[in-house]
Amino acid sequence: MESPSPAARIGAEFLGTFWLVFGGCGAAVLAGVVLNPDKVSVGIGYLGVALAFGLTVLTMAYAVGHVSGGHFNPAVTIGLAVAKRIEWKWVPTYIVTQIVAASAAGAILLAVASGKDGFSAHDSGFASNGYGDRSPGGYSLLACAIVEIVLTAFFLYVILGATDDRAPKGFAPIAIGLSLTLIHLVGIPVTNTSVNPARSLGVAWFAGGDALSQVWLFIVAPIVGAAIAGVSYAGITAARGLKIDEGVANNP
Length: 252
Description:
The chain is mostly helical. The protein has one domain (about 5-115, about 125-240): Up-down Bundle (Glycerol uptake facilitator protein), CATH 1.20.1080. The chain contains 11 helices and no strands. Helix 1 (about 5-30) packs across helix 8. It is globular. The model has no long low-confidence stretch (mean pLDDT about 95).
């Protein structure tokens, strides 16, 4: 089978990352909390937002994972490079593509959300991540750093395990999508869940102010967690895994 071209890989990463941010953050911004005329919430809540993020990754991993590997996340790209599942030469290209795609998704989401009178990306938070007084549950910087590192590390463990050549074939996107759903169920009350620097940056640009001042944590912590998993997975499991050209959706 012919290896996907660089342009195809970039296109696949762009589509997947765009869909993750637009679908996941869009669910949070547009449908997370919705009041009916009686002021009763009919929004999808934490569970619905968690499912939205998981479904974006599941669907795009099947759709384009066989082209680019289905990363959609700079931390995943770095973690896979550390684990020697992707060549380091691809890392800068993937990360730039992911950040551009996330930012484009954030811009389009802002255009949609701004169609409602009184909407403010700054005042609403625009699905941005935060700690301290910007944490949904008021959690400290340390608590938020720990949860982001741990959740990202386990996300990478699932990705590395699901694409291990000993794993059941063709099911990797399901495991990865469900793991991201679980990650959001744990992380939303603490940080609004990042585990993905591109996702965080893609909305922080538009939330501005405090969101941008805190976004550094949601760049650093996911990368640290991903690197920990990338270094340790093979040693823990004596694993072999797929290279980028094989992708998560095929898992032959």
